[in-house]
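hey so u asked for the seq, here:
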Amino acid sequence: MNLHAVTAEDAFVHLEPLTSAHRDDLRAACNADTDVWTSLYPISWAGAHFDPCWDWLAGEVAAGRYIAHAVIAGGRCGGMTCYLNIDRRHGVVEIGGTYYRPDWRGGPVNPAAKRLMIANAFTAGARRVVFRIDAINARSRAAVSKLGAQFEGILRQDMITWTGRIRDTAVYSILADEWPAVRAGLDGRLLGLGGAT
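ran it, structure tokens below
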């Protein structure tokens, strides 16, 4: 698997490597919903947490453990999404570290961004694309299911979040031989939302 950052766009979003040029817009997006960080995320990017998280992510990117992307719509960065747990030898990659400002949720931004991310991963030679979601995050679990990913099960007491809550993690995946059917479904869905792929 020869995986690199995505620079791509469709009718709804533009993805590009996350850089310092996106920092202020991403900070504003992360501060637009401070409650979600407490209830659903393993770490917080809100308020005083933003700068340490930014520095941590920059270190993960520099070490090759993450490939971080800015999600841009309407000319502004309003979120991020990443490749992580990159296993080049076995062709496995996770898509995660995803956050969107509240007014982007429930519309075309997530399926459009995920369409670009998943396509890039399989084009790069991935065999398996994985999603790991907090088991109590019903909205994100529904969104990943709607993408066409298969539910694999729950990792019980998988991690401790920054608030001290013990998190169970729901695992979903898409395999390379499933991607053509998943892609067709996503393309039809995006076309119905007024976009072309």
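The longest helix spans residues 109-123. Residues 8-192 form a domain with the Aminopeptidase fold (CATH 3.40.630.30).
lmk if thats what u needed
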